[in-house]
Specification:
Blueprint lengths: L1 E5 L5 H7 L2 H4 L2 E5 L2 H9 L5 E8 L3 E2 L1 H8 L4 E10 L3 E4 L10 E4 L1 H14 L4 E4 L3 H7 L9 E4 L1 H6 L4 E5 L8 E9 L13 E8 L7 H10 L5 E8 L7 E8 L5 H13 L4 E7 L14 H12 L2
Parallel strand pairs: 1-2, 1-3, 7-8, 7-9
Antiparallel strand pairs: 3-4, 3-11, 5-11, 6-9, 6-10, 12-14, 12-15, 13-14
Helix pairs in contact: 8-9
Length: 306
């Protein structure tokens, strides 16, 4: 088995992957970006990729949402929640009061902006492909910045880095959600329902008109399917053209979810099913009695007997 993740070594993505028992003992290949990681999956170079999809502070990771929605179908087969802690590292010898330019991933920067404004109010920001990439580049002596925001794991991997400050996050409860993505054909199997599951779909807006979004959402509401995340992203085809990335509570094997998916396909034939998988927090949905599998089965039997 081969797995990839948003690299280099020491990223939160690697930490998320290492929490998966099967991946901890498998070959792990870092990728320089989320699209590159998913491309490896689509081309069959690896069995699965661990990529960030949502942050409790910054929201959805747009690079992941867009890359999963585009191209050949992929399947999400698992999720991992990682508490986020940040440190500031510099090249050997530099002092905190000498830092003028800082680099990190955009989502990390959003989570330390308050600390930066208070501690280094004049520092400029340079975006990086990942937190670890920004930190490791300091050891080359070539970057156009003085320090990097990264995870403590990076400093463990590279003790030669100069740790300037620890625990610099603005929100002590920040969490990033990662998803394990595989190919539809020849990839990892869809997990069986556990009773505490999520289903992820991508739905293009069929027409830009009043009530178009309501037509999509009522397919869930009418079947008692709760949504845990909904985000809109531009399709790139034209101004005003969007798709919706949605996480819904339940598994495709649940009758309420199957009926909701059928309804979605009637409204928007371009809907993409991205997988059903166990929730990382193990929280079970609250299902009304008339939305249980038994209720749907009784209703189907009644109609069949008419």
């Amino acid at each position: 088995m081969k797995y990839t993740y948003l690299g280099p070594e020491g990223t939160f993505s690697e930490a998320a992957l290492l929490s998966v028992p099967e991946a901890a003992e498998a070959e792990r290949i870092p990728s320089h970006s989320v699209p590159a990681a998913l491309s490896k999956v689509r081309q069959g170079e690896v069995d699965a990729a661990m990529v960030p999809i949502e942050n409790s502070v910054e929201g959805g990771v747009t690079a992941t949402l867009d890359a999963i929605a585009a191209g050949d179908d992929l399947r999400i087969v698992g999720e991992v929640l990682v508490p986020i802690r940040f440190i500031l590292v510099g090249a050997p010898g530099i002092r905190l009061d000498e830092v003028r330019v800082v680099s990190t991933h955009s989502h990390a920067w959003a989570q330390v902006r308050g600390w930066m404004e208070e501690t280094l109010p004049g520092a400029d920001y340079v975006p990086a492909s990942s937190t670890a990439a920004a930190a490791v580049a300091l050891l080359d002596g070539t970057p156009d910045y003085d320090a990097a925001v990264c995870s403590p794991i990076v400093a463990d991997h590279h003790p030669e880095l100069n740790v300037l400050a620890t625990d610099i996050g603005d929100n002590a409860n920040a969490i990033t959600r990662f998803v394990l993505v595989t190919a539809v054909k020849g990839g990892l199997p869809t997990p069986a329902p556990t009773g505490a599951d999520k289903t992820t779909v991508v739905i293009p807006l069929p027409k830009d008109r009043a009530g178009a979004l309501m037509d999509l959402l009522e397919q869930f509401a009418a079947r008692g399917v709760n949504l845990s995340r909904i985000e809109s992203r531009p399709t790139g085809e034209a101004l005003g053209m969007y798709f919706f990335s949605i996480d819904a509570e339940g598994h495709v094997d649940n009758l309420r979810m199957r009926h909701a998916l059928r309804g979605l396909h009637r409204v928007s034939t371009g809907v993409k099913f991205l997988g059903s998988y166990p929730r990382a927090d193990g929280r079970k949905p609250i299902v009304d009695p008339h939305h249980t599998d038994e209720a749907f089965a009784r209703a189907n039997a009644w109609v069949d007997g008419l």
